[in-house]
Design a protein that fits this description.
The complex is a heterodimer of chains A (about 350) and B (about 280). Chain A is built from 8 helices and 18 strands. Chain A is of the alpha+beta class. Chain B has 2 domains: about 55 residues, no CATH class; about 200 residues, Orthogonal Bundle (MetI-like fold). Classes of the chains: A alpha+beta (about 350), B mainly alpha (about 280).
Chain lengths: ~350, ~280
Amino acid sequence: MASIRLVGVSKHFGDVKAVDNVSLDIADREFMILLGPSGCGKSTLLRTIAGLEDPTGGEVFIGDRMVNEVLPKDRDVAMVFQSYALYPHKSVRANIEFPLKVRGVDKAERADAASQAAEVLGLTPYLDRKPGALSGGQRQRVALARAIVRRPAVFCMDEPLSNLDAKLRAETRAEIVALHHRLEATFVYVTHDQVEAMTMGTRIAVMRDGVIEQVGSPQEVYDRPASVFVAQFIGTPPMNIFPAGAIEPGDHLVGGRPEDTVISDDHATSHDRGVAATVVLVEHLGHEAQVVCAVDDHTRAIVRMNPSDDLPRNGDTVRLNVPEEARHRFDAVSGARID
Amino acid sequence: MALDTTPKGWRSWVRYALLIVMAIIILFPIYTTIVASLKPGNRVLRNPLVPDSFTLDVLGDAWTQGRLGKYLWNSAVVAIIVTMFQLLTSIMSAYAFSFLRFPLKRFFFAIFMATLLVPFEVTLLINRRTVDSLGWLNTYQGLAVPFLATAFGTFLLRQVFMQIPKDLNEAASMDGLGHWGFMREVAVPLVRPTLGALGLFSFLASWNQYLWPTMITTEDDMNTIQSGLRLLRSSDLDKPNLIMAGTIIAAIPILVVLVVFQRQLVRGLTAGAVKG
């Protein structure tokens, strides 16, 4: 098994800096999530680790070996693609066996390995089918089986669940986590879905514009976001960010999670009354209600409330506040966390 | 069944009428050839369109007098060599233009495609001189070598190779395949229908060659079926339908190939037309 170390890795496509001077240590057997919006460079970074992209600058280490010049097949890395990338003309069994066949493993041994991998992923009944005769979830499991069959040190996964429906995604998510425990390998997993990131990863690297904004455990990233971007990217609904001076004195921004944001009517008499806002929408989700408020022309804030509470109505003027202990403070210019 | 007189029905009638007329125009020469080849020689010019008598003698005469067996063999050898090499060279060049990165790739592809604009007749004399200088007149290599590569095949295969998802190529490289391996194990099997169609086109084109074999064969032994039919015509004036019978014999292998591979042909022609 192997750790991964990225030292000042960059990847430029012409003038576009897809990955810009990224350094990251991924421990052996860690499940690292690369999280970010489309175009943030997470897939490019993953492909650079896998060897499918040559870095423009910097060094990639897998274990103690610098692999910049090493071909993908020699890096001891397996890749699972968003599109599954199965060989459509080969049976499921042939697809799973294929990496071993290419490496010259004898027929009996690779048949054994393929059967085991198929067993682990529940594919045994489908071994003689072609990928075209499988559902999306089954195809993704074939892709996983093809990845695990040669027992690589590192698994790279590029949004492997994004083509699945919500129910199947939840099931396959659990399967991948179980697979990680079982294989004890290093996983690097790219997603733009924060639920996947929060539920699967041991650590999350949040990326934006080719750079890593924050690395930490899912709870750390949620509890102490390093920037306004991270604060608003992690969490559903995103963290409310109030303008400087609105919640407390000072020229910094104040953030509060929707569940921490307190709503009161405009006649509240507390000495710390928070900021005035207008209710623009009340959404009933069954287990909770989300009250969307306009603080000013540019600022919206969402408050999670118990549906049995006395909910405000559209057009009501209310006051929003965040308790002192739940406040997040960010620099108004750079967006970086202050405390 | 009542006659459909709605505008849609009339359009359908007109369409079918046109199709029937076109089918008659296309099938008429074939019909007359078959009728003539099955009549005794002395009855061909009487009621040429009516099959009023039947004999296989003329077909037999054409086979024996015309040495059609030898010509068919020559045509088969040349057509098979040309087809195999055209497939091979088309696969390799199309793969290079689709999957390899090299300087001036677009420029070279444009040059390649530009050769499609040059009719074969333009290069006929130069090719004849080259083949002659190599001492290849009256040889299989002389008949086949000028046709071993085709820009059409390269173009056709490149288009289908380009439809192979990039992820598949990358998955193969992760699995340990190089370019040769990917071409052999993935790319070629995936474009098999198109290869079938291309092979069929190549075979038909080579089989139907007339001008080139006529120009480079001076010995009867090396005639192909099409150039051999020419000799048949001039060999026996008493049997004007001998050439018809020879034509029918020459067409039989092509018909067999078409029937066997017609599925491949249709699939190949429509490959990539719709998202699969």
